[in-house]
Amino acid sequence: MTDHPTDRPPQPNAATPRSPSPSPSPSPSPSAPATPQARAVRLGPRSAAALVLVGAVGVAAFGWPFLAPPASRISAHAQDAPWLFAGLLVLLLAVVAAAISESGLGPKAVAMLGVLAATGAALRPIGAGTAGIEPMFFLMVLSGRVLGPGFGFVLGSLTMFASALLTGGVGPWMPFQMLAMGWFAMGAGLLPGPDRLRGRGELVLLAGYGFLAAFAYGTVMNLAGWPFMGALASNIAFDPRAAVPANLARFVAYCLATSLGWDLGRAVCTVVLTLALGPALLRALRRATRRAAFETPVTFDAPDR
Fold first, then answer.
1. Per-residue b or e along 169-178, where b marks 16 or more CB atoms closer than 10 Å to that residue's CB
2. C-alpha angle 181-39-204 in degrees, rounded to nearest 5
3. Which three-class secondary structure string do you get for the chain?
4. Is residue 92 within 8 Å of 54, Cβ to Cβ?
5. Cβ atoms of residues 88 and 234 within 8 Å
6. Which of 159, 126, 166 lies closest to 143, judged by CA?
7. The Cα angle at residue 191 between residues 280 and 134, in degrees rounded to 5
8. How confident is the model at residue 42 (pLDDT cuts 50, 70, 90)?
9. For 210-224, how does the pLDDT look when each residue is reduced to its tens digit (9 = 90+)?
């Protein structure tokens, strides 16, 4: 007895392969961690300790008019103290640069450091400080953000040194400028969210930091030059015989009278350039960082025989 055709289970055609149904590709989870941002320099314990040391000495070098009592030896040599601190800062900056270089500043990082430092040094004479138009500050903010605090500190110091040689601005104020610009660029690398924050939020963060840090840079540089003024020059000059509150009032009046306009212009210029050119420059810096592969160890394979 033969089965009815409809009683048999349907057999697949052996000649025609069955194509598997395409499986839906997993969609990226919005909470998945972003790829960590590569750093040109990873700070080790020795370089971090050197940064802390130069930071402590820098605070003393900038703020000694308010830290030293009127009867101290430093106040008695008010005209010589900036020179002594300038010489000390030069040595400490060299130590920090050597420590950071030892922690992993490879040839690719040195090449990028040279390009960015040369660009920043060339940007500084464009405004020549007129009304605070100094376009190099926005470059330091974006470079420190992408390349990290260690690279940012070395970049800021080296850029200010190269620009001083380029413009003839070498003097006792130069080490203070190098340290202040190193802090300026390093602070951008310490901002939160380098691996997650992108787009408009990151630009607003960088613009806000550039605005505040531009005022901070002008204030600390006023501290470096304020003690050079003679006490008899005006009632806003540093008086080594006066108490701290009196000198603090003099210093505030000095900042308002001499540098507020320049600091405001520098801050506004940094914000405008960061918002206008920031997206393109951030993409270029991150693309160059990925292609350079700073954190990839270099290995050499033996040739095949």
1. eeebbbbbbb
2. 60
3. CCCCHHHCCCCCCCCCCCCCCCCCCCCCCCCCCCCCCCCCCCCCHHHHHHHHHHHHHHHHHHHHHHHCCCCCHHHHCCCCHHHHHHHHHHHHHHHHHHHHHHCCCCHHHHHHHHHHHHHHHHHHHHHCCHHHCCCHHHHHHHHHHHHCHHHHHHHHHHHHHHHHHHHCCCCCCHHHHHHHHHHHHHHHHCCCCCCCCCCHHHHHHHHHHHHHHHHHHHHHHHHHHHHHCCCCCCCCCCCCCCCHHHHHHHHHHHHHHHCHHHHHHHHHHHHHHHHHHHHHHHHHHHHHHHHHCCCCCCCCCCCCC
4. yes
5. no
6. 159
7. 55
8. low
9. 999 999 999 999 988
Tokens of 172: 């006792």
For residue 275, give both structure tokens.
Answer: 């918002």
pLDDT in tens, 71-87: 665 554 455 556 666 67
Tokens of 126: 């464009």
Single-letter amino acid, residue 155: L
Q: Which two tokens stand for residue 117?
A: 């430092």
